[in-house]
Amino acid sequence: MKVLLIKEVPGLGTPGEVVEVRDGYARNYLFPKKLAVPPAPHELSRYAKLKARYEAEISDRRAKAQALAQKLQDVEFVFTRRVHDQKKLYAAVRAHDLAQAIAERFGEEIPVDHIKLEPIHEVGVYPVEIQLYEGIKATVRVRVEPAA
User: Fold this and answer.
1) Which domains does the chain have, with CATH numbers?
2) pLDDT tens digits, residue range 75-134?
3) Which of 17, 30, 83, 97 could serve as 36's disulfide partner, Cβ 3.0–4.6 Å?
4) Residue 133 exposure: Cα atoms within 13 Å on the Cβ side
């Protein structure tokens, strides 16, 4: 069955697209949740504007992500933590800490799950990859130093 998507459905399509799905999926999931409608001619013209607006929004998101990637590339964030046994930290540096540091320094909120950082338990310098948008990544350095 062909359906016209009203909202973005991950793995299926974007608003304004006509896609082929199974009948049951359309009737039991897409239509009740108001994610799609049958592709009648008046609906197609109505959602053509929605598609144009959505594409402009996606383009804007991509441009903002690209600009943020330029700002973040090769930036170093320094964290000081109390240590024991020379290099082991009492409190690990986590993705949440890095997200908070980025928000304070650049004013940009980055979801914690977009930061590829395993908890850091030792003093040192670590490269961290941040997924900003589809295909747009930035690599920052995290330096962990012992507190005096």
Assistant:
1) 2-63 (3.40.5.10), 73-146 (3.10.430.100)
2) 999 999 999 877 898 989 999 999 999 999 999 899 999 999 999 999 999 999 999 888
3) 30
4) 13
- Report the relative pairing of strands 136-146 and 124-133 from DSSP bridges: antiparallel
Higher pLDDT, 73 or 142: 142
From residue 79, how far is each of 40, 117, 126, 134 by CA, in Å?
57, 14, 11, 29
Name the pTM for this structure.
Answer: 0.70
Q: Which residue has the tokens 């409190």?
A: 91
SS3 assignment for 15-46: CCCEEECCHHHHHHHHCCCCCEECCCHHHHHH
CA distances 45 to 3, 13, 14, 31, Å, are 14, 18, 16, 19
Taking a C-beta distance cutoff of 8 angstroms, is the pair 108, 140 a contact?
A: no
The contacts of residue 135 (CB under 8 Å, 6+ apart) are none
